[in-house]
């Protein structure tokens, strides 16, 4: 507790690796694995886009450009850590090992695609509310004194929501084992981050809640891993962290959006030069870690993605009963009657 | 051995016994810890079970329920308290769109065994927003159980059943009758069942449906009229036991419903509609609803006009009987 005449002077730090010409301590095969995951996620994104245009997917939220912040974050996690995503974390799910066909199935409007996710929560559509679930999980880990952590993903737009602030506040008060990763991709649909908040950074919002705030170059996967390693170590020790990954959404908000209405092509082109996949590729080449097999992997990734998409498309639509099955653990008589009535009409 | 308790003591006993029964149970909310809650529903629990099982939290309803959802997904069985149900709307999104939907969203692979407790209803000369009866909002949120006890035994047993349930529950406590009367309580969770209403007075002339603090009002009104009134305590607002109501109406041919919430969209409308669908040929008179008017809950100098009282219920019963 500070004395009455003291003024708090906090600070946040920024972590960069590639831009500082620093070398990663990761092994070559680890770096390759990260690169392959990023390619796979990029191919998924492109395929989902095409499927949307063909009418196989109704709406899709692309993650193109954000692969480093998602895959880097997941790379630093352990299997028994928990993940609480928002709705643009398909790359993170891929890195967590979610079956690709199930991910497509979810985007094709079939909730069966998001069952059995073990320590990961399903997609959360309302903006920011899932941060509280992440912190609740982190509080439970803290109460049980477990050496685990939970990673919650959220976007820059959500930082205006009350639940974001309540989540940070609860995390600090209850020593939650939580890392909240804000993927600051510069736009909440059409709203640029400069209009979202008057704060210079999003990471500094942590200071108001007495927790650590870290900003990281979110297009530098090695920096994200370094920042996440630090954040997770703290979180496991009951010191929650707000981590701002500064990145860019190279595509539209969703397939229903047209980003040319609110942002310059020049800006997008400039960010394309910071594409996280290109940056890792350059890094690997500069450090003599590149391998031609990585080039070949693109084709393999595309095959994998096509196979998964086809598998998802072949799945029969769920039966009408599915709607009633999982509302309650035991179906109440009222629902049984509703179901029966609907069955009779649908016969 | 049955013990004499009022409703708030029965709730305290239920919370105590569930903390003892299951180490995953924990409770928190504004002033819940040291203070034992503003109505003392969690009195002495922190002292006995420690600060990790019963504690005060920051003043943030969405935060309280949202983190409780996270905890329950992780395997805890949280019982968060919202200090007054009129403030539950700040947590409404978390309750309706998340707590109620996780089972569906994950095809049954993740569940939210959460019981949100909140004192509800008027009649205690309280401040604005301290008197609401929001049961219809929650009843319209599929995936929830909405429970309202009216007496100490039901409060004890239904709360224990709610905490043990693997689905989310909104447990609304009638604060006007928290300390109004005592009765013997068996510390047995099976003394009342969820999804089950209860005929508390048998009669053949008219069915009178009530819940929460309106149950004693219904009982008093029934005694003042010259008719054999069958009184049903609904107990579980949703999933509703309509069968008990329909059976009763088929027998009596007449029905009145009393609740504290405003008439339009109040849960009485749902009951009347079900009677219409399932027992219209048994009706001798239109179903009568005795409810609050469609105005915001007034400051307390006017609340006696707002809340249905014995006279209004009596008048309603007479309308049905004399139709």
From TrEMBL, chain A:
It is an enzyme of class 1 (oxidoreductase). Keywords: Coiled coil, Oxidoreductase, Pyruvate. Its EC number is 1.2.4.1. InterPro entries: Alpha-ketoacid_DH_E1_comp, DH_E1, PdhA/BkdA, THDP-binding. Residues 35-319 form the Dehydrogenase E1 component domain. Transmembrane segments: none annotated. GO terms for molecular function: pyruvate dehydrogenase (acetyl-transferring) activity. Residues 280-314 form a coiled coil. The keyword Oxidoreductase applies. This is Pyruvate/2-oxoglutarate/acetoin dehydrogenase complex, dehydrogenase (E1) component, alpha subunit. The lineage of its organism: Archaea, Candidatus Nanohalarchaeota, Candidatus Nanohalarchaeota incertae sedis, Candidatus Nanohalococcus. The gene is acoA.
Automatic annotation (TrEMBL), chain B:
Its cofactor is thiamine diphosphate. Its EC number is 1.2.4.4. It is an enzyme of class 1 (oxidoreductase). Gene3D superfamilies: 3.40.50.920, 3.40.50.970. Residues 5-180 form the Transketolase-like pyrimidine-binding domain. The keyword Protein biosynthesis does not apply. InterPro entries: THDP-binding (IPR029061), Transketo_C/PFOR_II (IPR009014), Transketolase-like_Pyr-bd (IPR005475), Transketolase_C (IPR033248). Pfam families: Transket_pyr (PF02779), Transketolase_C (PF02780). It comes from the Archaea. It comes from Candidatus Nanohalococcus occultus. Keywords: Oxidoreductase, Pyruvate. This is 3-methyl-2-oxobutanoate dehydrogenase (2-methylpropanoyl-transferring). The gene is acoB. One of its GO terms (molecular function) is pyruvate dehydrogenase (acetyl-transferring) activity. CDD domains: TPP_PYR_E1-PDHc-beta_like.
